[in-house]
């Protein structure tokens, strides 16, 4: 089990972000703290998870919470299940709320891994993204983090910004390589409906990045990072010296995770209330409503959907193929005791065609994308789902 | 091509003359003049009219013909009012135009008739006004209406002057040897110049200026004079009540309760309820249930007599039983049938498909009901691998197609995919084998799949039309260039006055079916008018063009076109496909080919990257929904080789382009 508590508040709205987040003048942190702790306890009990493998504080901007809150949630988790001392505890941090004393506080609270939202090391790009920090602040934050969490600091970078050229991206990447620790996430900017940036691009005030340029940027980044010793272990994630994110891997491996906090998503079997099937769960979005629910019934679960065996397999497929290891026979077998990976995809059909075209591999260890196929996964998946649905 | 009401529509200006649902006001008053009966418009089934008081000498059968919007229906409204046929009220607008589409577009689709009673110099006259459709698309209907007439009122707008349809209509009447009363309408308008229009009429139609009547139908000015001229100038029909019955069917409608209502003109004898009649065409026998006149609503009468015009109900179940142009006579008293009309030949074909296949049955029944009243539409079942089951419909012309489509949408609330219109080509076969196969040497090609290759054909033929364009002279240069681009051959060019020119061109029909009108209207700032009539077939260098995706032909995109247009059309289709087919994992060559020769090519590049950047806990549900929708969509795609083409792409390529 992998709890992922959400801190739903931000100081500012970024121009590209459509997450469930709230910018409020004053947060009643004590109330939020006790609710996060209480919900974590309730849901862990429901899931009957014995041992927690990782914890991920996401958001929002969880680095805006005080270390005391982080500590309280971790305490609650440890009280409800076994939290091994080596378990990965990640906190997402913004450079503007990641000073050394602040980070030291989080470390003392139990955090042992940081994911810093650098996004860019260019001030103009940061302004375009509506970020609060400057490139210099980002550098400072990363250096501070590396000092406190050596080998366990990750940075996020965005590419494919309107107007960004191949050259500026290559330079940004070089700069990031000079700064980073052993984990980098590179995200192509997705224009999300309802964001200021999307409105500007769709309205024509900012240029749309050409498809071919985006593909080139991705290829450049892959080549550069692999040359620097990184393993490209997921579509957007790179790690060296084995510094993979345990927590995120658990999503892609379709393991159980428990969403805690406003708008958090979870996937687990609620054994504690007699459930037998994996469920997709969503917590109430709006923080005040969520808090009321937690206070009155211990949790703010808004929606529970039992996932059918086919739906579970569809998720296993869509998520597992994002990783370099793909879907192992062992993992497939756990979700599909009757239909083997070979029986599903080793027969004439879409997967075989895609394999012949060089996008997929099905072998003794399992099903995975080729290097070329990984960047085209969204074109492969509908065909694979069609084939799976026929069984 | 734009729909009527959008910009650049040449045949109709969409404007609401009357709210679509405006009631036809029926009057409470009595008709003018002493007549033999009390209430000419009393509701059906009360007292029947006695029509015997109207001998042939007191009957005038006439039509009003005009270019669209020159005021034909307004004049008809005034004539109906003056004669007391309808009450004079504010809402008499296009009384004879009953269809919603007619009222909206200000055009007449179905001819409607009305009998008017008018006392002139102490004599009671029966004036039968036979309304005609407002466009030569419906020349079939116009000629039906005219064949029941002895004269016409030719209405010309005092401001716009002679327009293309004025010319076409004039010649229809002239060739039918009808008396023509020229009327210049809208003299109340600020820019009216009736003097100029009179000169045009004299120059073009050889009618003396003095014969023109200047009127304002809107205000009623001089309308009475028009009625007097109708009586003076139009001869009564030449026929005799003592002769055996000879009735011409000139229109028919379908009534769900009473079956076919046939509009008839009596060229001899008389007819009444109980008569046994026979159709000269089908030889079927019927018993007459009801006869009457149209005022303009059906008004039963005891009898109808020679020279009169009215309706007949005789237990016919299907409009095809009351064929336009058929002659009816009394059982055991056969007569020489009246010379047949030109039968309606479809000139423009288009595929019609339900937007959603589950709507197929609804569309089918709507088509059946609509064609009950419009026998000039031909319907053949058709199916397309991309668009599903549907029909190939044949129309008299473009307006006919537009109107039919609009009626489907308005009256049956059904929206359809209508494919780009095509024309019926012909091939003269030279291959003995094919001639034997078809049982004839000349075949009509409607579906490109049936296009015989040039080695088994001595000649291909394409339909042509004689187009009339009337335009202010400053646009001549541009219009001539446009016509030449459309492979048209100039036949005539006449200055109808100092500023206006009439051009006549022989056009291949397929060159005007798509966007000619829009082009003409836009380059003449809306001032040029256009009309056309069937001009038979001519030899043409036709070819079949295939569209290939990675070398595999796409059946539904094959087209028959003229060799000169192959390159431009091929390029256009390839470009459009490139914009509508989604990128795939491999490069796609989109080619237009004639035989083995590639004449146009576009390349749709392969996807190089297509994977969502972030996929963590919170996004998975949304992500899976999208993927599953894509998987469902994939199942509905048409596969051409390994290329997947969504139905939408076919629709966007095949569909008639209604906006630019």
Automatic annotation (TrEMBL), chain A:
State the UniProt keywords alphabetically. 4Fe-4S, Chaperone, Heme, Iron, Iron-sulfur, Metal-binding, Mitochondrion, S-adenosyl-L-methionine, Transit peptide
Its GO CC terms are: mitochondrion
Q: Where in the cell is it found?
A: Mitochondrion
Q: Please cite one Gene Ontology biological process associated with this protein.
A: porphyrin-containing compound biosynthetic process
Q: Name one GO molecular function term.
A: coproporphyrinogen oxidase activity
Q: Which domain of life is it from?
A: Eukaryota
Role of this protein = May be a heme chaperone, appears to bind heme. Homologous bacterial proteins do not have oxygen-independent coproporphyrinogen-III oxidase activity. Binds 1 [4Fe-4S] cluster. The cluster is coordinated with 3 cysteines and an exchangeable S-adenosyl-L-methionine.
Q: Name one Pfam family in it.
A: HemN_C
Entries under InterPro entries matching the protein: Coproporphyrinogen-III_oxidase, Elp3/MiaA/NifB-like_rSAM, HemN_C, HemW-like, rSAM, rSAM_horseshoe, rSAM_sf
The record's similarity note reads:
Belongs to the anaerobic coproporphyrinogen-III oxidase family. HemW subfamily.
Q: What is its main location?
A: mitochondrion
Which named protein is this? Radical S-adenosyl methionine domain-containing protein
Organism of origin is Chordeiles acutipennis (Lesser nighthawk)
UniProt xrefs under CDD domains: Radical_SAM
Recorded hits in SUPFAM superfamilies, A to Z, give: Radical SAM enzymes
Domain Radical SAM core, by residue range, is: 1-231
What PROSITE patterns does UniProt report for this protein, alphabetically?
RADICAL_SAM
TrEMBL record, chain B:
User: In which domain of life is the source organism classified?
Assistant: Eukaryota
Q: Write out the entry's keywords from A to Z.
A: GTP-binding, Hydrolase, Membrane, Mitochondrion, Mitochondrion inner membrane, Nucleotide-binding
A GO BP entry is: positive regulation of translation
Q: Would the keyword Mitochondrion be found if you checked this record's keyword annotation?
A: yes
Tell me which GO cellular component terms the UniProt record holds: mitochondrion
Identify the Gene3D superfamilies for this entry.
3.30.70.240, Elongation factor 4, C-terminal domain, Elongation Factor G (Translational Gtpase), domain 3, P-loop containing nucleotide triphosphate hydrolases, Translation factors
Q: What family does this chain come from, according to its entry?
A: Belongs to the TRAFAC class translation factor GTPase superfamily. Classic translation factor GTPase family. LepA subfamily.
| NCBIfam families listed in its UniProt record | lepA, small_GTP
Could you identify this protein by its name?
GUF1 factor
């Amino acid at each position: 089990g992998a709890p992922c508590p959400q801190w739903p508040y931000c100081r500012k709205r970024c121009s590209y972000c459509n997450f469930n987040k709230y910018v409020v003048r004053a947060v009643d942190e004590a109330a939020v703290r006790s609710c996060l702790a209480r919900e974590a306890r309730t849901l862990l009990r429901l899931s009957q998870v014995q041992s927690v493998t990782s914890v991920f504080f996401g958001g929002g901007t969880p680095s805006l919470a005080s270390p005391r809150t982080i500590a309280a949630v971790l305490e609650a988790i440890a009280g409800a299940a076994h939290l091994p001392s080596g378990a990965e505890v990640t906190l997402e941090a913004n450079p503007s709320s990641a000073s050394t004393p602040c980070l030291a506080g989080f470390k003392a609270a139990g955090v042992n891994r940081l994911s810093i939202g650098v996004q860019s090391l260019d001030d103009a790009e940061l302004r375009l993204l509506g970020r609060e920090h400057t490139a210099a602040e980002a550098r400072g934050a990363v250096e501070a983090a590396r000092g406190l969490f050596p080998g366990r600091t990750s940075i996020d970078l965005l590419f494919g910004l309107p107007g960004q050229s191949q050259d500026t991206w290559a330079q940004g990447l070089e700069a990031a390589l000079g700064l980073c620790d052993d984990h980098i996430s590179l995200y192509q900017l997705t224009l999300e409906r309802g964001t200021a940036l999307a409105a500007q691009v769709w309205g024509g005030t900012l240029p749309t990045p050409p498809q071919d340029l985006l593909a080139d940027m991705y290829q450049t980044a892959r080549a550069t990072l692999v040359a620097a010793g990184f393993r490209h272990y997921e579509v957007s994630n790179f790690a060296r010296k084995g510094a993979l994110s345990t927590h995120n891997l658990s999503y892609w491996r379709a393991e159980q995770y428990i969403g805690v906090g406003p708008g958090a998503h979870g996937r687990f079997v609620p054994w504690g209330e007699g459930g037998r099937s994996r469920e997709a769960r969503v917590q109430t979005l709006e923080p005040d409503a969520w808090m009321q629910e937690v206070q009155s019934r211990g949790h703010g679960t808004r929606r529970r959907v039992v996932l059918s065996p086919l739906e579970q397999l569809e998720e296993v497929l869509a998520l597992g193929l994002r990783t370099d290891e793909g879907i192992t026979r062992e993992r497939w077998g756990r979700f599909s005791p009757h239909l083997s990976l070979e029986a599903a995809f080793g027969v004439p059909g879409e997967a075989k065609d895609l394999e012949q075209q060089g996008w997929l591999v099905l072998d003794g260890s399992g099903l995975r994308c080729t290097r070329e196929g990984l960047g085209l996964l969204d074109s492969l998946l509908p065909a694979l789902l069609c084939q799976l649905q026929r069984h | 091509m734009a729909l009527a009401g959008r910009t650049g529509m040449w045949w109709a200006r969409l404007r609401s003359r009357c709210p679509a649902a405006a009631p036809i006001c029926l009057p409470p008053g009595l008709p003018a003049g002493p007549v033999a009966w009390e209430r000419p418009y009393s509701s059906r089934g009360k007292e029947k009219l006695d029509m015997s008081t109207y001998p042939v000498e007191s009957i005038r059968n006439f039509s009003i013909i005009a270019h669209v919007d020159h005021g034909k229906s307004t004049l008809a409204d005034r004539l109906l009012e003056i004669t007391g046929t309808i009450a004079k009220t504010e809402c008499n607008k296009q009384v004879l135009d009953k269809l919603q589409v007619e009222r909206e577009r200000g055009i007449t689709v179905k001819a409607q008739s009305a009998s008017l009673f008018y006392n002139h110099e102490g004599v009671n006259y029966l004036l039968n006004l036979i309304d005609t459709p407002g466009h030569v698309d419906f020349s079939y209907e116009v000629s039906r209406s005219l064949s029941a007439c002895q004269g016409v009122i030719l209405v010309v707008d005092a401001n716009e002057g002679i327009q293309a349809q004025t010319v076409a209509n004039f010649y229809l009447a002239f060739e039918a040897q009808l008396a023509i009363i020229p009327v210049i309408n809208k003299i109340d308008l600020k820019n009216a110049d009736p003097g100029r229009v009179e000169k045009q009429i004299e120059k073009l139609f050889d009618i003396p200026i003095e014969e023109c009547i200047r009127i304002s139908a809107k205000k009623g000015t001089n309308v009475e004079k028009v009625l007097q001229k109708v009586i003076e100038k139009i001869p009564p029909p030449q026929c005799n009540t003592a002769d055996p019955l000879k009735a011409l069917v000139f229109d028919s409608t379908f009534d769900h309760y009473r079956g076919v209502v046939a509009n008839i003109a009596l060229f001899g004898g008389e007819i009444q309820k109980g008569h046994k009649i026979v159709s000269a065409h089908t030889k079927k026998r019927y018993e007459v249930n009801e006869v009457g006149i149209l005022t303009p609503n059906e008004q039963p009468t005891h009898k109808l007599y020679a020279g009169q015009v009215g309706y007949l109900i005789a237990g016919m179940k299907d409009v095809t039983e009351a064929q336009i142009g058929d002659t009816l006579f009394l059982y055991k008293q056969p007569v020489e049938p009246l010379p047949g009309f030109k039968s309606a030949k479809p000139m423009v074909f288009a595929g019609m498909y339900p937007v959603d296949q589950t709507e197929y049955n609804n569309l089918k029944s709507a088509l059946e009901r609509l064609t009950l009243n419009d026998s000039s539409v031909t319907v053949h079942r058709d199916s397309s691998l991309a668009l599903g089951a549907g029909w190939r419909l044949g129309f008299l012309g473009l307006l006919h197609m537009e109107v039919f489509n609009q009626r489907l949408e308005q009256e049956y609330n059904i929206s359809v995919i209508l494919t780009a219109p095509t024309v019926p080509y012909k091939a003269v076969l030279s291959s003995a084998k094919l001639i034997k196969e078809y049982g004839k040497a000349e075949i009509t090609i409607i579906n490109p799949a049936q296009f015989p290759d040039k080695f088994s054909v001595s000649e291909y033929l394409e339909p042509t039309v004689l187009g009339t364009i009337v335009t202010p002279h400053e646009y001549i240069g541009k219009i001539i260039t446009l016509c030449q681009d459309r492979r048209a051959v100039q036949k005539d060019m006449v200055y109808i006055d100092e500023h206006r020119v009439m051009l006549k061109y022989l056009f291949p029909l397929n060159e005007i079916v798509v966007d000619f009108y829009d082009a003409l209207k836009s380059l003449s700032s809306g001032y040029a008018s256009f009309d056309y009539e069937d001009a038979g077939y001519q030899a043409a260098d036709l070819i079949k063009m295939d569209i290939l995706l990675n070398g595999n032909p796409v059946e539904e995109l094959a087209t028959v076109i003229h060799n000169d247009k192959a390159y431009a059309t091929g390029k256009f289709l390839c470009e459009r496909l490139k914009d509508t087919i989604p990128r795939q994992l491999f490069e796609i060559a989109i080619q237009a080919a004639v035989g083995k020769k590639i004449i146009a090519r576009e390349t749709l590049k392969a996807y190089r990257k297509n994977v969502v950047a972030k996929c963590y806990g919170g996004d998975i549900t949304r992500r899976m929904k999208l993927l599953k929708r894509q998987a469902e969509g994939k199942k509905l795609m048409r596969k051409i080789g390994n290329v997947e083409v969504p139905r939408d792409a076919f629709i966007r390529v095949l569909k008639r382009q209604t906006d630019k």
